[in-house]
Amino acid sequence: MTAPILLTPGPLTIALATKQSMLRDWGSWDADFNRITARIRERLLEVVHASATHECVPMQGSGTFSVEAALGTLVPRAGHVLVPQNGAYCQRIARICRILGRSVSTIDYPEDAAVKADDVERALIGNPAITHVALVHCETSAGILNPLAAIAAVVARHGRSLIIDAMSSFGALEIDARTMPFEAVIAASGKCLEGPPGMGFVIARRESLQRAEGNCHSLALDLHDQWVYMQKTTQWRYTPPTHVVAAFDTAIEQFLAEGGRVARGGRYAASCRTLIDGMAKLGLKSFLAPEIQAPIIVTFHAPATPKYAFKSFYDAVKARGYILYPGKLTTQETFRVGCMGQMGARGIQGAVDAVAEVLAELNG
Ligand SMILES: Cc1ncc(COP(=O)(O)O)c(C=O)c1O
Q1: Residue 190: alpha-carbon gap to chain centroid
Q2: Is 165 in the pocket of ligand 1 (CB under 6 A)?
Q3: Ligand 1 within 6 A of CB of 167
Q4: What is the domain class of 5-9+260-363 according to CATH?
Q5: 96-103 — which CB contacts under 8 Å span 24+ positions?
Q6: 0.85 exceeded by the pTM?
Q7: Best residue for ligand 1 mutational test, from 65, 167, 185 (most atoms within 8 Å of Cβ)
Q8: 3-class secondary-structure state, position 300
Q9: What residue ranges of the chain are covered by domains with CATH 3.40.640.10?
Q10: How far is the CA of 266 from the centre of ligand 1 (A)?
Q11: Each residue's pLDDT tens digit, 41-90
């Protein structure tokens, strides 16, 4: 049986060539392997037009490891982070800051509202102690697109630093260091760039990294140390996830061949439209207003029938070749469908058709 297609926000279904590039073993000291690391770092900088101003520091682990590394390394111990919150990943950032002993303030939104640049501006004016704003670009919990460009402009205007969690947007949605000033942007291998999970990366302003020596609470997550060591030796500081790195390189090669960020984002947007329209025809309403829906992952209200239970719905859709994702909302019964990754020959329509069959059974 072929493996089901993952309609999840990472890990996601990756191309065969990407999987195949994990069949070779690499020595972490080997110059050929280190050239792969260097190429990945350069290409990731180019995705956000940051080669002239920023450095790309890869980090072992899932995305959260890189988020924690960025906050712990780039926010000084006396720093104060403002977190506009409209979902679980924003809440995780605030939690990391508290655990690291960094002062933190939040602006709290409901789960179906985007962050407003005006609110961020008011908070910055009201509290001169704030040094950093930490923004989640696409809040994967509900699938909200937060207005990065407007917030970046406000943060820059008030002389503060912006740290962007772009975990589920990097490579698909526009992020441009030349027009959206940021101190750091964080993402990972297993999201829109369609590699396997296992490494993250932080694209950090060069001067900020240079200033960051000694800030970090952690040895393993010290981004400054990782960067300095890599610059000096071309190697990762501790054992790299070699197979993941090699596969990520292949994934980036395919990303570029597809047409880069614009083409990748366009493919996801087309899938997202097909998905929302197709599900609407089945009577399944998406949770967010269209103007704040990111073309990455869509939250749907659960079918209204009392016979619905996520677990059996999930199993029935899985039996037809697709893996759904549970909802992450605190107040409503929902499920999620990702628009990322390789969707197979039938595209996202295949998933809509699978859901249609399962609903017919449920209602029958
Ligand atoms: C916006 C965002 N931030 C952080 C993370 C955490 O990444 P991980 O689960 O890889 O640690 C995710 C995961 O999906 C995410 O979507």
Answers
A1: 9
A2: yes
A3: yes
A4: alpha beta
A5: 96/64, 96/67, 96/68, 96/71, 96/72, 97/71, 97/134, 100/68, 100/71, 100/72, 100/75, 100/217, 101/77, 101/217, 102/71, 102/75, 102/77, 103/79, 103/129
A6: yes
A7: 167
A8: strand
A9: 24-257
A10: 22
A11: 999 999 999 999 999 999 999 999 999 999 999 999 999 999 999 999 99
How far apart, in Å, are the Cα atoms of 116 and each of 111, 160, 272, 276, 287?
13, 17, 24, 25, 19
**How much distance in Å is there from the Cα of 167 to the middle of ligand 1?**
6
Which two tokens mark 131?
A: 């040094």
pLDDT tens per residue, range 244-289: 999 999 999 999 999 999 999 999 999 999 999 999 999 999 999 9
Other C-beta atoms lying within 10 Å of the C-beta of residue 263: 14
Per the structure block, which two tokens stand in for 285? 């309403």
Whether the CB-CB separation of 270 and 116 falls below 8 Å is answered with no
Q: What does the block give as tokens for 328? A: 């992450």
Highest CATH level, class, for 24-257: alpha beta
